[in-house]
Amino acid sequence: MPIKVVAFDGDDTLWHNETHFNFTQAALRNLLRGHAPNAEVDARLFDTEMANLSLYGYGIKSFTLSMIETAIEITNGTIPASDLRVILDWGKRMLREPTELLEGVRETLLDVSRNHELLLITKGDLFDQESKLARSGLAERFGGVEILSDKNVDSYRRVLSRRGIDAGEFVMVGNSLRSDVVPVVELGARAVHIPYHVTWQHEQVDEDSVPGDGWFRLEKITELSPLLGSLDGRARRSVRHKLQSRPDRKTKRD
Questions:
Q1: DSSP result, 146-158
Q2: CA 218 to chain centre
Q3: Which residue in 183, 65, 70 sits closest to 121, CA to CA?
Q4: Which of 73, 222, 238, 239 would bridge 104 by S-S if both were Cys, CB 3.0 to 4.6 A apart?
Q5: Is 236 inside any structural domain?
Q6: Is the pLDDT of residue 171 over 80?
Q7: Predicted TM-score (pTM) of this structure
Q8: 18 touches 175 (CB < 8 A)
Q9: Residue 251 pLDDT > 70, yes or no?
Q10: Cα separation of 184 and 232, whole Å?
Q11: Boundaries of domain holding 60
């Protein structure tokens, strides 16, 4: 079936994101170096983030609150208020970071939009994601924007149903196997995985658990247009073959 709609993830697919988190987490390790080794800080921060997901969701604000909670716990409540202020300022700085596009993104979106409708489907804090999109200069490229609290089969199904999109005509492009590939393929659509050089621990999955078919991996986003062209070409040839192989049916008149 020819592709009609191509959806893109935002963070680490269109613009840099995880590097900001890694930089700030390194600063937290340094702040707490007198209280716990780096590995313990990382492990306890991740555990705190996971425990808080159902309360705060994804994003910088959730990350900042989890850093503060982790720092309080690791120091047994002795961390000075001035250090808590430092952590809070890190979060504010992250929220103000300019949206830096990955190489080739602007040109690829322009090229893909010539033959397909484009959607942005991302997850996280609504205000933060809207702000990043506005700063990116890409908003006008998308026919629709979906900011989800999480990406799973049900949330993708609701998006496609609400927009009247057939799963066979839909392709999702993103950097996360967990969020952008597995649920999309399970839904019967196709996905394109473009890995980012850093992946948050929560988004990592064992590739043995990923479906064997229905998705493709590219090294960079500039390879997307040729792939979509190839998939569309296969679909057209398949339709043409079915039409040509259909037996002629003549109407018999008495």
A1: EEES--SHHHHHH
A2: 15
A3: 183
A4: 222
A5: no
A6: yes
A7: 0.87
A8: no
A9: no
A10: 18
A11: 18-95
